[in-house]
Amino acid sequence: MSTALKLTRRLRLPLIATLLSCALIPAEANLKAGAKAPDFSAQASLGGVVSTFSLTDTLKQGPVVLYFYPAAFTSGCTIEAHDFAEATEQFKALGATVVGVSHDDIATLNKFSVSECRSKFAVAADPDQKISKSYDATMWYWPGHSDRTSYLIAPDGSIIYTYSALAPDGHVKNLLAALKDWKSKQKS
Q1: For residues 131 and 55, what is the distance between their CA atoms, to the nearest angstrom?
Q2: Sorting pLDDT into bands at 50, 70 and 90, what band is 1?
Q3: 138-149 pLDDT per residue, tens
Q4: pLDDT value, residue 188
Q5: Which of 44-53, 73-82, 90-99, 156-165 has the lowest mean pLDDT?
Q6: Residues spanned by the domain of 29
Q7: Which helix (H) or strand (E) holds 91?
Q8: What does the alpha-carbon distance between residue 82 and residue 78 come to, in Å, rounded to a whole number?
Q9: Strands 49-54, 122-125: parallel, antiparallel or unpaired by DSSP?
Q10: Is the pTM of this model over 0.85?
């Protein structure tokens, strides 16, 4: 066996371990609290009905919970969609609108919005990743897919809170806490 082949075999396991650990590290979104949220409009599906989602128009109604996810019908994205669906009424009670964004086409999102989002909130199509790139919510290790990043956006268009983690389970809890905190400060 050649020295190069032995070296390659010896480095394979540490390289795989490093790549896997990088995938588990929470992503750092560049858009921080206080930054201006990039405006966008996109085709979106709510309960299988297609319309145009406009961030500007939706912000006129109150804060927006904007969450990016890698791909409809994958295990983590399904968990996250279920979590947001279960919490949609809590977000609404606090005056917020939830919208998810992924690279999926609108036909896929029509199905996803009914089955996994349970017709509770809209999911917007971002097939060219224009929106996710403007929010710095793309995966460097899975090109063409959004990272799992969530933003809470104030009605004035400023970002209140950002949460990035590949694991789906903390997004709803953290966004609800941030929204409640922001709402309490509005009353002061």
Answers
A1: 11
A2: low
A3: 866 667 777 789
A4: 64
A5: 73-82
A6: 3-187
A7: helix 75-93
A8: 6
A9: unpaired
A10: no
Residues catalogued as catalytic: 77
Tell me how many domains the chain contains: 1
Contact assessment for residue 126 and residue 132, using Cβ atoms and an 8 Å cutoff: yes
What is the total residue count of the chain? 188
- CATH number where 47 lies: 3.40.30.10
Per-residue pLDDT tens digits for 63-88? 999 999 988 898 878 888 999 999 99
Q: What does the block give as tokens for 45?
A: 């599906």
**Phi first, then psi: what are they for 91, rounded to 5°?**
-65, -45
> Any idea which residue has 């086409």 for tokens?
105
What are the structure tokens assigned to 153, written together?
């956006």
What tokens appear for 6 in the block? 């032995």
Written as six digits, the tokens of 179 are: 């929204």
Reduced to 3 states, what is the DSSP secondary structure of residue 186? helix
Q: Which two tokens stand for residue 57?
A: 């128009």
Sheet of strand 149-153, all strands in order from the earlier edge strand to the far edge: 49-54, 41-46, 122-125, 97-102, 64-68, 149-153, 159-164
